């Protein structure tokens, strides 16, 4: 919330321009305004080994707390049933980055996200979020850490009995914010996602895209450093998917780091953002300006 | 802190009414279980009072020698009265005994045959009420050893048998009450668990947006307490409404027994409200806990 207060307020009409014709978004049409893209050049498709080395070097540069929102170093996750979901994962996400996390089902995307929100802890290695090592974080500190992350799901996870406004305000209420702070903060994020007019409706009265925008508003209302979107377009048709993507890109422009796990190849390939590909628990590809599939 | 309590109470109130069906189902279960518990408790209280009443009837009667002097009787009376097992000692003189006999004959509508006697054939006696009926042998032996005592009616074996029965009844009543209590505990806790599980997604969202454990837990605990309180209130209402017709034929029973209705009501209210609120809180606490500990 404190972060939003520094941003210029959004007017009613100009909050979002969502009239982009769907797949026609130019690959270079969106600037992230961060130096992240220049960190790795991909003149020729790199081997996994060279990527690993580059990540590691970049990790050293970027691992400074004020630069990297997220650092995973040598992370392995083995579940109690013996299944190894992640193996030796190294990943650095600098502030302001927009990262697609791709890979087949069962590749470890969900496990990675669970580690980030500390639903699970790594068996080996470090997960450092905003300078805090999650494995060493005492249990009592976990809720405070989670407020630095906004999470968006495929199934929206909205409360059906609450209105749009109440669903967003809920995130602030249950974290102990006083009412006088809640009202302006909720109004502002609803303006950002373009739902001011629908504030009094309940989720069942909304379209899928509007429901997801409500979820995005809820994720944003704390002023998080990182937005994690787990298949946010999985339940939406292509047109609405692009609308959601536009919104996430806009939020990224405002300086929030975005990590989006997705199966939506069209979107990933068209946007040419940083793509991290997981397969069988390993990062097999990490390239800036990448496509959904490997381009050899 | 105050704002946290206000927040929790408000959320509890909302949680109750926004999930009205689940909440009312839980309250209805609560009412039925509390009625069951209260019913068994009332039966148990009546049973205990009845047993106590029976045991109070245990009395040792010592007939005195006709030549016993007044000072001998007084000494014996104070000696026996000083024993810790003895509650009270009553002296029945020969005249008193005759009077009693005549009264009882008259009450039975029989002819008073004592008028044909030229002297009083009855003995004077000491009637000893016992504080602890199991001490009957000690008191009886003490009386028999005294030379002023002519004889003591031997009711020790009978008293032993009565005590065996009352002890079995007392133990059985307590065991049944405990078993009913455990059943009530499990059913209420499980019903509240269902109401909480139905809102698992809400808890999940609260965790994901970074709500601390206290902010997740307390609204549910207050809600559980509210369900318990409401259930207790309805239960007491039902009991109060039922007490009029039931009391009609129970009043004689209660008059005989050493039960004070005021104390009984107070204990019953404490039991029902305490069990309702306590089990509501316990159920919520345990149910939410499974979502918090991960």
What labels describe this entry?
heterodimer, A: 296 residues, alpha/beta, Rossmann fold, six-stranded mixed sheet, 9 helices, 10 strands, 32% helix, 21% strand, disordered N terminus, B: 294 residues, alpha+beta, Alpha-Beta Plaits, 2 domains, four-stranded antiparallel sheet, 74% helix, 8% strand
Q: What does the model show?
A:
The complex is a heterodimer of chains A (296) and B (294). Chain A has 9 helices and 10 strands. Chain A has a 6-stranded mixed β-sheet, with helices on both faces. In chain A, strand 9 and strand 10 form a beta hairpin. Helices cover 74% and strands 8% of the residues of chain B. Chain B contains 9 helices and 4 strands; from the N terminus they run ααβαβαβαβαααα. The interface between A and B is medium-sized, with 22 and 21 residues.
CATH architecture tag of the domain at 2-15 and 28-34 and 95-119 and 138-287 in chain A: 3-Layer(aba) Sandwich
How many strands in all of chain B?
4
Q: Whole-number average pLDDT of chain B? A: 86
Q: What is the overall number of helices of chain B?
A: 9
Tertiary shape of chain A: globular
Helical amount among residues of chain A, as a percent range?
A: 25-40%
Which two chains form the greatest contact, residue counts included? A-B, 22 and 21 residues
Task: Let me know the largest β-sheet of chain B.
Answer: 4 strands, antiparallel
* Class derived from helix and strand content of chain A: alpha/beta
| Distance separating the two termini of chain B | 26 Å
How are the strands of the biggest sheet of chain A laid out side by side? 6-7-8-3-9-10
- Determine the structural class of chain B based on helices, strands and strand pairing: alpha+beta
How many beta strands in the DSSP annotation of chain A?
10
Radius of gyration of chain B: 30 Å
The SSE order of chain A reads HHEEEHEEHEHHHEHEHEE
Order of helices and strands of chain B: HHEHEHEHEHHHH
What proportion of the residues of chain B form beta strands (DSSP E)? 5-15%
- Overall outline of chain B: elongated
């Amino acid at each position: 919330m404190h972060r939003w207060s520094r941003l210029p307020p959004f007017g009613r009409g100009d909050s979002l321009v969502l009239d982009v014709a769907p797949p026609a978004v130019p690959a270079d049409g969106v600037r992230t305004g961060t130096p992240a893209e220049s960190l790795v050049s991909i003149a020729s498709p790199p081997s996994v080994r060279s990527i690993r080395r580059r990540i590691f070097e970049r990790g050293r540069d970027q691992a400074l707390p004020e630069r990297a929102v997220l650092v995973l170093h040598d992370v392995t996750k083995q579940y109690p049933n013996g299944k190894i979901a992640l193996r030796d994962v190294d990943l650095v996400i600098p502030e302001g980055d927009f990262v697609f996390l791709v890979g087949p089902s069962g590749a470890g995307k969900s496990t990675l996200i669970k580690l980030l929100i500390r639903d699970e802890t790594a068996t080996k290695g470090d997960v450092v979020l905003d300078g805090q090592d999650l494995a060493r974080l005492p249990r009592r500190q976990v809720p405070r850490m989670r407020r630095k992350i906004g999470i968006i799901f495929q199934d929206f996870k909205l409360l059906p009995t609450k209105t749009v406004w109440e669903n967003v305000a809920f995130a602030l209420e249950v974290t102990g914010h006083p009412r006088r702070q809640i009202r302006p903060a909720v109004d502002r994020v609803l303006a950002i996602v373009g739902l001011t007019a629908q504030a009094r409706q309940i989720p069942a009265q909304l379209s899928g895209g509007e429901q997801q925008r409500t979820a995005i508003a809820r994720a944003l209302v704390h002023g998080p450093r990182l937005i994690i979107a787990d298949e946010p377009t999985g339940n939406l048709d292509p047109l609405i998917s692009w609308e959601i993507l536009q919104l996430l890109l806009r939020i990224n422009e405002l300086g929030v780091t975005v990590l989006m796990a997705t199966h939506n190849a069209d979107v990933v390939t068209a946007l040419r953002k940083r793509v991290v590909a997981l397969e069988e628990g390993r990062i097999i590809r990490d390239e800036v300006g990448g496509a959904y599939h490997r381009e050899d | 802190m105050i704002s946290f309590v206000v927040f929790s109470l408000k959320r509890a109130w909302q949680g109750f009414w926004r999930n009205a069906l689940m909440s009312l189902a839980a309250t209805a279960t609560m009412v039925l279980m509390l009625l069951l518990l209260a019913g068994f408790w009332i039966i148990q209280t009546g049973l205990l009072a009845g047993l106590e009443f029976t045991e109070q009837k245990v009395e040792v009667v010592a007939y005195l020698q006709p030549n016993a002097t007044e000072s001998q009787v007084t000494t014996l009376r104070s000696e026996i009265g000083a024993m810790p097992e003895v509650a009270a000692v009553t002296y029945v003189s020969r005249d008193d005994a005759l009077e009693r006999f005549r009264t009882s004959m008259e009450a039975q509508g029989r002819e008073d045959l004592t008028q044909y006697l030229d002297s009083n054939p009855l003995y004077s006696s000491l009637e000893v009420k016992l504080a602890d009926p199991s001490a009957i042998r000690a008191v009886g032996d003490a009386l028999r050893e005294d030379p002023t005592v002519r004889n003591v009616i031997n009711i020790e074996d009978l008293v032993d048998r009565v005590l065996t029965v009352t002890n079995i009844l007392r133990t059985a009543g307590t065991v049944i009450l405990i078993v009913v209590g455990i059943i009530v505990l499990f059913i209420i806790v499980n019903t509240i668990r269902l109401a909480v599980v139905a809102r698992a997604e809400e808890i999940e969202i609260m965790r994901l947006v970074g709500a601390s454990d206290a902010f997740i837990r307390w609204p549910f605990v207050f809600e559980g307490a509210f369900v318990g309180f409401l259930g207790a209130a309805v239960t007491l209402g039902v009991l109060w409404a039922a007490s009029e017709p039931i009391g009609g034929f129970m009043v004689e029973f209660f008059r005989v027994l050493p039960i004070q209705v005021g104390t009984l009501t107070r204990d019953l209210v404490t039991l029902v409200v305490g069990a309702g609120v306590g089990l509501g809180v316990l159920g919520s606490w345990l149910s939410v806990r499974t979502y918090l500990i991960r």
